[in-house]
Amino acid sequence: MGTEPLDPGTAMAAYAAPPPRGAAFDAWRTWESRDGADGVIAAGILAANARNVQPWRFTVGDHSTRIDVYADLDRRQGALDPFDRELYVGLGCALENMVLAARARGHRPELSLMPDPARPEHAATLRLTPGERVPSELYDAIPHRRTNRGPFLRQSLPRPLLDEIAALAGDDSGGPDLLWFADGEGREVVARLLVEATEAVIADEGQSLAGHHWYRGTDREIERSRDGMTVDTQGMPPLMSTLGKRLPAPSRRTADRFWLRNTRTVHVATAAAFGMITVADSDDRAQRMRGGRLLQRIHLFATARQLAVGHLNMMTVRADRERELGLPPRFGKALEELVGDPGRQTLVTFRIGRPGRAAGTSPRRPVATVLGTDAG
């Protein structure tokens, strides 16, 4: 049997560091105080997203009963996400939080993906009609969820628990699905390929530069941008994080070497299992968002069970880069072999396990910054 859900006010909070001081972290503290459509959006902006680029913007219309969600194309990752895979996955994560929040707050949400084929940046429309309040442990987990880049305890997870997580995908044969690589040769292959893909990313000048663009090394940078990767979210021991914020920001190459070392010795070495979300067509924007919704559900379920999730998107990042540049599809073929089904494609990969230390809190842009005027 899977583990039982825990009281969200105590157990979940123990596995996430409290938000640091500063306006860049207010979104984590104030999200539940907002009402109506603004409250639903406030939940959405706390969702997981690659490199914390926060690729979303919103408008509210029809007397606050309609929220339109847009891809913020100014927040693309360039060479690290040449076909906007990660961008739309992140939007799907936000949509899952928004749907959960709408239900918990007494709305009946109706979600439409890609409602305007002529405007690919118009990702979704969420309509809110009155309904019963539907609380859930996933909703309760929203403010406690963090992406964890630190070491996990070297403990395996029971197969019934992994099956319980896989069931979050539902039984829609056309929707996203979840593969586990928890033991044996498959797990070893995934671990090796993740390290090799990281080596390939940092050897690619364009990808290395694109990644470093989102690093925020000082409190002033964090308060100004309210996005990106910070010292506190790198999974280091608290003392090292404190020292890291007092020292000059590392060079791009130093940061790359740190990432590679952590990938090899922490991320893959301590993972209890690797998960892979698959879809029928990883280029389809709607399927990307459906996969993102599943990824966020996994995050929240894990949080409620005192587990941790960390994104490991290096193989898909390299596969997309290979396709962009016309390179031999080394990682593209490797992903096909791992999936083993010509009708399914890898969307995202992650690791899961029991956290060895609390995860740091990432900055977030407030609702006022991501909310625009009604598009009509």
What is the CATH architecture term of the largest domain?
Answer: 3-Layer(aba) Sandwich
Q: Which strand order does the major sheet show?
A: 3-4-2-1-9
Radius of gyration: 19 Å
The end-to-end distance, rounded to whole angstroms, is 49 Å
- Overall mean pLDDT: 93
Strand content: 5-15%
**Number of helical runs?**
15
CATH superfamily name of the largest domain? NADH Oxidase
Return the domain count. Answer: 2
Low-confidence stretches: 1-10
Succession of helices and strands: HHHEEHEEHHEHHHHHEHEHHEHE
CATH topology assignment of the largest domain: NADH Oxidase
Could you name the CATH class of the largest domain?
Alpha Beta
Residues in helices, as a percent range: 40-55%
Form type:
globular
- Judged by helices, strands and strand pairing, the structural class is alpha+beta
Major sheet details: 5 strands, mixed
Organism: Streptomyces coerulescens
Protein name: Nitroreductase
Region (Disordered): 355-376
